[in-house]
Amino acid sequence: MEIPYEVTARRDTGLYNAKVGIWLFLASEVMLFGGLFSAYVFLRVGVNDGVDTPWPMGLDVHGSGIWLGFLNTIILILSSVFVVFAWLALKERNWNVFRNWMSAVIACAAIFMCVKAFEYNKKLNHHYGIKLTDDSVVEGEIANGTDKISFEASKVTLSLQSDLPAFVGHVDGAFPDFTVMEGEETVTLQGEKGLRKWFYKKRARVSQDLAAARKEFRAAKKKGEAAQLKIVSTKAELTAVKPFKLLAKDRKVTNYDEKKLNYIDNVVVEGKLINDYVELIPHQIDLQMIPIGRQKESMVWSFFEKYHQVRPNWEKAQEKSLEKIRGHFKGEPIPGKVVQSAYINLHTIPHEDFEDTAGNHAKSEEKKSEDDPHKGDHAEEKHGHGDADGHDDHGEHHTISVPRSDIRFMGNHGPRYGNYYAIYFTMTALHGLHVIGGALVLLHFVMFGKKLYLKNPEHLANRVEVGGLFWHFVDLVWIFLFPIMYLL
Amino acid sequence: MASSPEEIAKHKKAYKAVGIALLVFTCVTVSLGAFPIFDFGLPGATWEDFVIGLLVATVKASLVALVFMHLNHEKTLVYKFLIFTFCFALSLMALTLFAGWDPIKEAFETVRTNGFPSLKS
User: How far apart are CA A158 and CA A267, in angstroms?
Assistant: First the structure.
């Protein structure tokens, strides 16, 4: 059966079927992205000055990463041009030219997604922020995997009513063997596989025992007998054959001390705390939530004591910025808002500030070895000239060590880091999915379109036009996403 | 619609011109954010930057829609679809404005400044 109006247009609408369909679909897409843009406006406008963390400027979030956004914009624009040229090639009945242009579009889509993946990777794996208890924030890169609590475990008490304990995924190195008492008998659980097998079996048994106890209790009650619910133990104690190392994720741990680690799933791990300090290669200090008058006394500076140039240089930069404003107003009264804007609340630490004399470096190393290892790390300095990311010439880092007791919140620049990041990831990821979807459709035309081209080239041209319309829409969304997410 | 060789040549010329215009406007957009010299108003993102940034984006989007998506010579039915979409999208944005007068926010503010009544007593 032939479907009408696939190639030729209907006389009343002047459109062929697919075109009506794509425009209706694009209308629904406008509403989808419109809703998200509306959410963006809502979140941004809803920020309460002086109460909430200020909405970050795209430039402050992305830094040099805005050039990646710029690159992606260029790529999408070029791909949009290539799509229309591919369509024109079909109109000229030139398959080879069409295939070349369309391949270029798909290559553009692939490059776009690679750049996006690089950008996401930076945010999720390399950019961290630590919010201290006085609301100051220090941003940078986590060093030596210290975003996790390091603990030497020897005994684990777990609940047999929950899912597989989270600690199983936190074991560093070879998975240990455990022993557990089964009545009078001691059973050894060999590795992770042994533990899993035992856990699921035991959990099922406990669940059955609990059900039987409840049934027994109800039956006795029904008969009018004095009933008492049989107690079923739902806990199990595992002893490690050899102590093992855990790298526990903060959000899975409710609290801990030198000897105990309490997990969120009611698992208690006993042993010895190895390290709960977070080592960070700092890039930026954020003082936006500290009143201007108290910024100099912020606790954040205590972590930079040994990098003795960091604070004075921030003060100098601050003074320079105020001086510029004073010069601009030439003795006239300066509006408060202008003065406020001159204060440097976001201080990107220049790499020169980490430099020190060789003597100072030697001293700091000596002092570190004498002191408590944690305290020595407090403002540890490693020599050399650093680059913007805190790396020095020898591949070492300038790090600061922050005790977890001074941290209110810590996280990578993922969606949980703040409203900006949540909406950024939602919108850019949804857009990325559209890029993938569009590219797959266009790829289909290149790979399997030849048959249709030979049969009815105009039909394929119509399909490509429709696919191209979607592709242009994807470009159009990015045209707005780029300035609002990366620049403003 | 492009069908004759003359028309196709005309289209090619227009697409090239729009492509170049889009690239130029992208450079304008990025310079607004990346270089302090183009930062209008007070330092940081102010309404001036928003107006200029979004204006440039709107011009770019219009070029894509009008030329690449052929909306400069499309059939009436498509315009009808788009008028409805525009109205709905605008209403959606207006909902955001209404949220500004949301009384829940006021209650939230009161709680934030004065604390929960039960906790206070």
Answer: 5
For residue A452, pLDDT beyond 80: yes
A338–B57 C-beta distance less than 8 A: no
User: Chain A: nearest CA to B4, how far in angstroms?
Assistant: 9
Task: Return the domain boundaries, chain A.
Answer: 17-127+415-487, 137-144+279-411, 148-277
Q: How confident is the model at residue A338 (pLDDT cuts 50, 70, 90)?
A: confident
Q: State percent of chain A over pLDDT 70.
A: 91
Q: How far is B119 from chain A (nearest CA, A)?
A: 21
B99 touches chain A (CB under 8 A): yes
Q: Is B96 on the interface with A (CB under 8 A)?
A: yes
CB of B46 less than 8 A from some CB of A: no
The ipTM is 0.84
B69·A469 Cβ contact <8 A = yes
**CB of B39 less than 8 A from some CB of A:** no
Q: How confident is the model at residue A372 (pLDDT cuts 50, 70, 90)?
A: very low
Phi and psi at residue A278, to the nearest 5°: -105, 125
What rounded mean pLDDT belongs to chain A?
Answer: 86
CATH number at A17-127+415-487: 1.20.120.80
**Interstrand relation of A260-263 and A128-132 (parallel, antiparallel or unpaired):** unpaired
Q: Hey, what are A329's tokens?
A: 């107003």
Beta partners for residue A158, in sequence order: A236
How many Cα neighbours within 13 Å face the side chain of B1? 15
Cα distance between residue A6 and residue A102, in whole Å: 22
CB distance B26–A73 less than 8 Å?
yes
- Does the beta-carbon distance from B69 to A472 stay under 8 Å? yes
Assign A10 a pLDDT band (cuts: 50, 70, 90): confident
pLDDT(B23) > 90: yes
pTM (predicted TM-score) = 0.81
